[in-house]
Amino acid sequence: MKTDQIVLYMHAGSGNHGCEAIVNGLCGLLPAPALLMSTRAEEDRRYSLGPLFGGRIEQERSVEQNLPVHVFYYAKKRFFRDPDCFMRYRYRAVCGENKSPLNISIGGDNYCYDNMLDRLFSANRIFHAQGGRTALYGCSIEPELLERPEILEDMGRYDLIVARESVTWQALLDAGVKEKVYLCPDPAFLMQREELPLPEGWAEGNMLGLNVSPMILDNERKAGVTMENYRALIGHVLADTDLRVALIPHVVWESSDDRKPIQRLYQEFAHTGRVIVLPDASAPQLKGYISRCRMFIGARTHATIAAYSSCVPTLTVGYSVKARGIAADLFGTDKDYVIPVQGLGRRDELSAAFDWLLQREDRIRAHLEEKMPDYQARAASGRKLIEKVWEKS
């Protein structure tokens, strides 16, 4: 039998508040109740997805953490040539009698990571094998990855692909994936903010929000240059403006915890009394803080989406297609709006970018205020795309 619910899958957990923001925004676009498959279900229940989904969050079964099961399925995969047995075990809750007519892969930039590809391919195959449809929603894919035949083959299986920015959308078209491909802004642009009381040390209307992540540190080409730029930027802001600085973490996983580089920066500038660190919070609560910043500079994509969607003048310290594509869609160009971390060479480049932002602050805010209603309406139009696939399921 088929259930009457939609399955959301390839969700990594809400400790990455970008993942949380995608699912939070996507919920409002769904024409039917949804079950969320998660690698970190307890984590999701602690943040905003708990109230949204209630009891409809399902923990993926782990093959790797159960040695007898791992050995059994490894043997089955190798000797019985069953490449999808791992994923059928992992997703047992939504296979067989519990199958869903529509299964939506949480897009993001999952296809940009080699260690994710086998799982993406396998899940797409098993949902189709049991008669379901699949959608890849809100994705960013580096154009050169679409030269790989195995990725192109997988794209062909989806019944709907929604790119969240035009660079990916155009790359899909250029690669020959032309049917069922649409352009629609990231659903996180639709996430509502939740405003908590402002912390001690917050100067309302005069805060520069800063986010830094281990991810951009891993992508720099000159060792240490990113943190040098953040230090120089904070020093410049404190010396030459009356702004205060709020350091805002957006991912708190042990393997990639924004709080680690943020604490290093805070310890250097705490004595000034003009730099604060925000605690971990849900994605809507973090958006509530970011929305009350005067300006924002961020490394995490969904921290910058929280700022853009709140019409806060923003710069992205980026490393991938998603940063370039989103900025270009909003401003007509990514030049000056995105600082590629791979290109950082001098310690003053982020400070110069901040000066550029400060000089154009009012103009950029006005542009976002004019642009955002239509941009968010386009994000909301994704509901019609999902409804069409749902009705055919």
Could you tell me how far the N terminus lies from the C terminus, measured between alpha carbons in angstroms? 13 Å
CATH class of the largest domain: Alpha Beta
Strand order of the largest sheet: 3-2-1-4-5-6-7
Largest sheet: 7 strands, parallel
CATH architecture of the largest domain: 3-Layer(aba) Sandwich
The domain count comes to 2
The number of helical elements comes to 17
Number of strands: 15
Low-confidence spans: pLDDT under 50, at least 5 residues? Answer: none
Structure report:
The radius of gyration is 21 Å and the shape is globular. The protein has two domains: 6-191 and 377-392, Rossmann fold; 207-359, Rossmann fold (3-Layer(aba) Sandwich), CATH 3.40.50. It starts with 5 loop residues before the first strand and ends with a helix. It has 17 helices and 15 strands. α6 (114-129) links the parallel β4 and β5. It is of the alpha/beta class and 393 residues long.
Write the layout of secondary structure elements.
Layout (H helix, E strand, L loop, with lengths): L5 E6 L5 H11 L6 E5 L2 H6 L2 H5 L3 E3 L7 H13 L5 H6 L11 E7 L5 H16 L3 E7 L9 H9 L2 E4 L2 H9 L6 E3 L23 E4 L3 H6 L5 H16 L3 E4 L4 E2 L2 E2 L1 H11 L5 E3 L5 H9 L3 E4 L2 H8 L5 E5 L2 H11 L6 E3 L8 H11 L1 H20 L1 H11 L1
Parallel strand pairs: 1-2, 1-4, 2-3, 4-5, 5-6, 6-7, 8-9, 8-13, 9-12, 13-14, 14-15
Antiparallel strand pairs: 10-11
